[in-house]
Design brief:
Length: 303
C-alpha cells in the first residue's frame, strides 16, 4: 500500500515537474514574442518606407512633368513676376494635380524669391536647400537628373517639404520652380502602418534624434518632445533611410507593451500551476483519508 509520505513525494515531484515545464514553455513564448515583434518591426519599417518613397518619387516626377507642360507660363512668370493672372493660373493647375499642395514659388539659384514673398514662405532653410539644388544642377550639367534632398522645413504654422525643378527656357539653374507640400499624406501613411505597441517615425538622417514626422503629425503638433530621448535612441532596432530625402524611417517600440504581454504570460502560467496545485492537494487529501481509513481498518482487524 502507498503511504501518505510516498503520496506526498509523488505529488511534490509532479508539482516540480509541472513548474519546470511551465517555466521553460513561458520562456520559449517570450523568445518567440520578441522574435515576432522584431519581424513585425522590420515589415512595418520596410513597408512604410517603400510607400513613402513611392509617393515622393511620383510627386517629384509629376512636378517635373508640370514644369515641362507649363514651361511657357512658368518661364513667363519668372521674367514677369508681377503678372498675378499667370500666377493664379499656375496655382489653380497645381492644386488640381496635387491635393496636398501648400504653395509654389520661383526663386533665383541662390534662393532669393522672384515672386512676391509676403508670407515669407522662402526662409533661410529653403534658401540653403535651393542653393544646394542649384549646385547639383551645375555639377551634373543636367537639370533632369538633379534632385533636392527632401526634409521638413519648419516654418510657423505651415511645416512643409519642397520639391524643386530647374525652369526651362532659361540658363541651367538660373531660376528654380519651387513647389511646397503639406506632409499630411506622409503622416497618414505612418499612421495606417502602425499597430499597437509601435510608433513609426521619420527622423533626420543628419540629426538622428530630431523627429520630422510621426503618425501624430510634424513635431510642431505632436503631443511630445520633438527629439528622441537617449533611451529611445538606444531602443531602436530597425531603421531604413528613404532615398532622395534626409529622412530615416524608424519604429519606436513601446517597452510597456512587451512588459504587459510578458506579465500576462507569467500570470497564465501561474494560474495553470495554481490549478494543478489545488487539484493535487485535493487528490492528496482524498487518498490520504483513504489511506488513513485503511490503516485504522487494518489495526482493528489485528486487534
Amino acid at each position: 500500500m502507498v503511504s501518505r509520505l510516498h503520496l506526498f513525494i509523488i505529488i511534490t515531484l509532479s508539482l516540480l515537474l509541472t513548474s519546470v515545464i511551465l517555466i521553460m514553455y513561458t520562456q520559449q513564448r517570450e523568445q518567440e514574442f520578441s522574435a515576432h515583434q522584431l519581424a513585425i518591426q522590420k515589415a512595418m519599417v520596410e513597408g512604410a518606407a517603400r510607400d513613402i518613397s513611392y509617393r515622393l518619387e511620383n510627386q517629384i516626377r509629376h512636378v517635373r512633368l508640370f514644369n515641362d507642360e507649363y514651361r511657357q507660363l512658368i518661364s513667363h512668370l519668372a521674367y514677369h513676376p508681377h503678372d498675378e493672372n499667370t500666377q493664379e493660373i499656375i496655382d489653380i493647375r497645381l492644386r488640381q494635380r496635387f491635393s496636398n499642395l501648400d504653395s509654389f514659388s520661383i526663386t533665383s539659384a541662390t534662393g532669393t524669391p522672384v515672386l512676391d514673398d509676403i508670407e515669407s514662405r522662402v526662409g533661410d532653410i529653403c534658401k540653403n536647400d535651393i542653393a544646394n539644388f542649384s549646385t547639383e544642377v551645375k555639377r551634373l550639367n543636367d537639370s533632369s537628373k538633379a534632385k533636392n534632398a527632401i526634409f521638413i522645413h519648419p516654418q510657423a504654422e505651415h511645416y512643409h517639404y519642397d520639391v524643386m525643378a530647374s525652369i526651362k527656357d532659361s540658363d541651367p539653374g538660373r531660376n528654380i520652380f519651387l513647389v511646397s507640400f503639406n506632409p499630411k499624406p506622409i503622416q497618414n501613411i505612418l499612421k495606417s502602418r502602425e499597430i499597437p505597441g509601435h510608433k513609426l517615425m521619420l527622423t533626420k538622417l543628419h540629426d538622428s534624434s530630431l523627429i520630422e514626422i510621426s503618425g501624430a503629425g510634424t513635431r510642431d503638433i505632436m503631443a511630445r518632445d520633438g527629439r528622441l530621448t537617449r533611451e529611445e535612441l538606444l531602443s531602436i532596432k530597425t531603421s531604413m533611410a528613404i532615398p532622395n530625402t534626409d529622412w530615416v524611417m524608424i519604429d519606436l517600440y513601446d517597452p510597456a507593451y512587451e512588459r504587459a504581454y510578458i506579465n500576462k504570460l507569467w500570470k497564465e502560467s501561474g494560474g495553470i500551476l495554481l490549478i494543478v496545485a489545488i487539484t493535487n492537494l485535493i487528490i492528496f487529501l482524498i487518498f490520504s483519508t483513504r489511506i488513513r481509513y485503511a490503516e485504522i481498518s487494518t489495526n482493528s482487524k489485528g486487534d
